[in-house]
Write a structure and sequence with these properties.
Number of strands: 0
Largest sheet: none
Number of helices: 2
Order of helices and strands: HH
Helix content: over 70%
């Protein structure tokens, strides 16, 4: 996994955390759900990249 991809995945996870927090603060279920989805997708991409790197070595 390249450094650029790691940054992109971390940014997506951070964006999800922010969106989810805004959804909680405003009691907006759609924002909360969208934020959780972004956070989980970013985390899964990072995990997939780490697994791929482990098999390369």
């Amino acid at each position: 996994m390249s450094f650029e991809q790691k940054i992109r995945n971390t940014a997506q996870e951070l964006k999800g955390r922010i969106t989810q927090g805004i959804g909680r603060a405003t009691r907006n279920k759609r924002l909360k759900r969208q934020g959780k989805t972004d956070r989980v997708v970013g985390y899964l991409k990072q995990s997939g990249g780490k697994a791929k790197d482990a098999f390369r070595r």
